[in-house]
Amino acid sequence: MKTLLTTSTVAFALVASTGAYWNSRPYQLTLRRETNTSSCDIVSFGETQLHKSLLPATSGQIIRQHNIVPSTGLLGDEEIIRFLSYNTNELWLRAQFECSNDLSFVGQGGLNGFETQVSFGDQGVLHGILLDVPVPPLEVVSLLQSGPSDNRIDLAFFSDGYTMRERDKFLDDTMRLVTDLSTNQTFASVRPLLNFWAVFSPSRESGVGVNGKAKRTPFGLYRDGTELRGLYANNSDVALMACASLGNKCNYAILLGNDPLYGGLGGEYTTTTASLANGALVLRHEIGHSIIDVGEEYDGGYAYFGVNAVHNLSDVTWTQWLEHKEDDANMFRAERSVMPMQAYPWTLLNTTQPWTISFLSSGNYARHLVKFSLSGLPDRDDLIVLFDKVDLRWAPRKDIGADRWHYDVYEDTSLSAGVHEISFVLKNGALEGSAQLCSVEVLEYGTEAEFNATLGHYSMFPTFSIDNDTSYRPTNDDCLMRSVTKPNFCKVCLEGLWLSLLKRIDLVDNFKIACGRDRRRIFGVDLVPLAEFREPLSPARKATASPGRRTGKSFRSLRT
Ligand SMILES: *[C@@H]1O[C@H](CO)[C@@H](O)[C@H](O)[C@H]1NC(C)=O
Ligand SMILES: *[C@@H]1O[C@H](CO)[C@@H](O)[C@H](O)[C@H]1NC(C)=O
Ligand SMILES: *[C@@H]1O[C@H](CO)[C@@H](O)[C@H](O)[C@H]1NC(C)=O
Ligand SMILES: *[C@@H]1O[C@H](CO)[C@@H](O)[C@H](O)[C@H]1NC(C)=O
Ligand SMILES: *[C@@H]1O[C@H](CO)[C@@H](O)[C@H](O)[C@H]1NC(C)=O
Ligand SMILES: *[C@@H]1O[C@H](CO)[C@@H](O)[C@H](O)[C@H]1NC(C)=O
Ligand SMILES: *[C@@H]1O[C@H](CO)[C@@H](O)[C@H](O)[C@H]1NC(C)=O
C-alpha cells in the first residue's frame, strides 16, 4: 500500500468520489428469513455507505449478501439476507421473490404505530427499522475513531450481563479487546479504516446464563450446560435491532458477555466473553469470517471457502504469494500430510473411566503431532494424557485456571503402522462436572522436503473436513483462521481483508472548494490516513463517556 497516493491514484479516487456524491448513496435492505419456511421480517432499510461493485440504478443491479443468525443448531434456523442497490424497485421485487410471505404491507407504512415508516418509492425513502422488538436504551461510547462512520467500517461492542455498577468494567473489558485487536497485531494495519464503539445497556443480573437458561440481560446470552463452548443469545432479535438502530455505527455487532471463561459463536453477530485468554481469540477469528468472507482453516469443520481455501490444486488463488519460480515442477505440489484421527468430543471427564480413542496409522509418515484442547483443568496433577500408554506429561498453560486452552505435542518421529490409542485420565475427582475435553486430533507429516512447516512458507497445505474431505490452505500454521492462538492473519487473508474493506470505503473522506486570492479556486481533499498519512501507532485512547453520543432514537425500554 506504500504507493497508494501517487497523483494518478488521487485523481482516480476523486473521480470515484465525485460519482458517489452526485449519485445518492445506495440503499440496503436487511431481511431476517426463517430457513425452513422462507418467511421474512424486515430488519432495516435505508441508505448505506458505498459499495464499489455496485452499478448505477439504471442497471437494476443488486448485491446479495447472506449470513446465518447464530443459534443452537449447526446451520442456523434463521438467515440474514442483505440486498444493496441503487434501484429500490428492483430491491423490492427481489425481496418479494425470496420471501414466502407477503411483505407488501411495508410499502403502505404505518406499521402498528411503530416509529418509522418505510416507503419504497423513488422519493421520500426514510431509514426504517421494522422488526417489532423493544430495544433497550443504548449508551454509545466512542473507543477508537479513525473517521466518519459513513466512510468507515464500524464495529460495535454491546454489553450483556453487566449491571449498572459494572459499566466501567464493561468499558475496560471492551477497551482491552479493542487494544488487542488493533494495536501491533491482527487489525493494526487496517486500523485507519475502522471505528470501534462500546454500547452499554445495563443488565438486571450479572454474568451469562448456564444450563440453557438465560439471565435477565438485554441479549440473554447463555451456555447450553456448564461446559465452555457456544454462547447463545436468547434475545437474538434484540441484537439485530440494536445494531440496526445504530445505522452506520454498527457494520458488525459483537455481544460481549460478562464472563471470565471461553465461549462464543459467529454469524450475523458475534458473541464472545471477557475471558483474558480467549475473548480476543474468539473475536479475531469470528470477525475474520465476518469481514473477509473466508472459511475455516482448522481441521474438522465443514465450511472451507473464500480466499484461503481451494478444493483442487489447479485452482490455487494465492499463486502471487508462492516463492517457487514459474518453471518449478513442484510449484503446485501439495504438502504431504494426513489426519488419521480427529474428534470434537466436548465431553466432561470423570475419574471412573478415562476418555479413550484409537486410530490407525499407515506408518508412511516421518513425523506427527498430537493436538488437543481442554478446559476446567488448572493443575498438572489434575489430568494425565496417555499416548499408547506413555504419559505425554501434559501441563496447563500458566495461569489458565478453568479456562479453555490448546496444546500441541509435536514428535519428530514416525508412527508405526497399526493401531494407536490416546487416553485422557482425570485424576482430580473434584473437577468432575467442569473438567472438559473439547477437541483432539492427530496429524502426520512427511519429511521436511515433503512438508515445509517453516513459518512464512506459502504453499498448499491439506486441511481435512469433518468428513475427511481435503481442501488446501496457504500456510501451515501462520494464520488465526487455522490456529486461534495466533494473533495474525496470513498474507492471503490479510490481502482479502484489505480488498473487503476498501470495497466499502472511499479513499477521499471529503473535498472542499474555497476562494483563494486572484480569483483562484482552492481545491482541498481530506484523504483517509493511509500510507504516508498514517498516524504513528499509539495505544488506543482510553474510553471516556461522552453524553452527546447517546443515540438519537428513543426506543421502548426493555421489559424483562
Ligand atoms: C426445520 O426443518 C428441519 C428438517 O426438516 C427440522 O429438523 C427442524 O426442526 C425445522 N426447524 C424449525 C425451526 O422448524
Ligand atoms: C506494541 O508494541 C510495542 C513496541 O514493541 C510495545 O511496547 C507494546 O506493549 C505493544 N502493545 C501491545 C498492545 O501489544
Ligand atoms: C428466552 O426468553 C423467553 C422469553 O423471555 C423465555 O421464555 C425462555 O425461557 C428463554 N430461554 C432461555 C434459553 O433462557
Ligand atoms: C481439478 O481440476 C482439473 C482441471 O480443471 C480437473 O481435470 C480435475 O478433474 C480436477 N480434480 C478434481 C479432484 O476435481
Ligand atoms: C482420512 O483419510 C485418509 C486417507 O484416505 C486416511 O488415511 C485417514 O485415516 C482418514 N482419517 C480419518 C479421521 O478418517
Ligand atoms: C465417564 O466418562 C466415560 C468416558 O467419557 C463415559 O463413557 C462414562 O459414561 C462416564 N461415566 C459417568 C458416570 O459419567
Ligand atoms: C521451506 O520454506 C522456506 C521458506 O520458504 C525455505 O527457505 C526453505 O528452503 C524450504 N525448505 C525446504 C526443505 O524446501
From TrEMBL:
Keywords: Signal. InterPro entries: MetalloPept_cat_dom_sf (IPR024079), Peptidase_M64_IgA (IPR019026). The keyword Ubl conjugation does not apply. The keyword Signal applies. Residues 539-560 are annotated as: Disordered. Gene3D superfamilies: Collagenase (Catalytic Domain). It comes from the Eukaryota. Residues 1-20 form the signal peptide. This is IgA peptidase M64-domain-containing protein. GO terms for molecular function: metallopeptidase activity. Residues 550-560 have a biased composition (Basic residues). It holds the Pfam family Peptidase_M64.
